[in-house]
Specification:
Blueprint lengths: L2 H20 L32 E2 L3 E3 L9 E4 L6 E3 L4 E9 L5 E7 L8 E4 L6 E9 L3 E9 L6 E10 L7 E2 L4
Parallel strand pairs: 3-10, 4-11
Antiparallel strand pairs: 1-2, 2-5, 4-5, 5-8, 6-9, 7-8, 9-10
């Protein structure tokens, strides 16, 4: 056996010892999650019955199906939702109104600059269930606020995390509203 392979082996062993001593062999730590997502409270607007995933108050709630598991909406291949030509991510959210009035939805990203959330809501002004599309311009931590009519007492705000896996869902729409 030549002496060269032994020299390389001892250099590699010394390098590994140095890295281990410096702590470089440990797996990198994940950054602390700063998106404090809203937890369901079980309240469905206009109802005395509770729903596990719902979040709301007597006037307006997201649900009855409620918030997404662990407060995270995941856009992935084969999953629900859509991607716009601009790359925004859209998902259906259900709402329940305990009072009459048009549903208005706004939102903003909390963890980085972004265009505001867009929404598509029907023109129903009664109470009860209404479906909507929430369109998030980018993944991140989002605060969403829904208001019924011009009532200051009929408002609800929640925080959700938006994640995109790969190219996202297969459904692609031409553009945002």
């Amino acid at each position: 056996m030549s002496i060269r392979p032994l020299v390389r082996l001892s250099r590699n062993a010394a390098l590994l010892s140095c890295l281990a001593a410096a702590g470089a062999c440990h797996a990198p730590q994940k950054p602390k999650d700063t998106c404090q997502v809203t937890q369901p409270n079980g309240v469905v607007a206009g109802s005395t019955e509770r729903q596990d995933g719902s979040y709301g108050n007597a006037q307006v709630s997201v649900g009855p199906f409620g918030l997404w598991p662990n407060g995270t909406v995941i856009f992935k291949p084969g999953g629900p939702g859509f991607v716009t030509r601009e790359g925004a991510l859209g998902m259906k959210f259900g709402w329940t109104r305990g009072v009459s009035g048009a549903l208005h939805i706004t939102g903003r990203r909390l963890d980085a600059p972004a265009a505001p959330l867009q929404s598509e809501v029907g023109d129903d002004t009664g109470d009860g269930f209404e479906a909507s599309y929430l369109i998030f311009p980018s993944p991140g931590c989002w605060e969403v606020t829904a208001t019924v009519g011009n009532r200051s007492d009929a408002s609800l705000t929640f925080v959700t995390r938006i994640e995109q896996v790969g190219a996202g869902p297969a459904w692609h729409r031409d553009s945002t509203p």
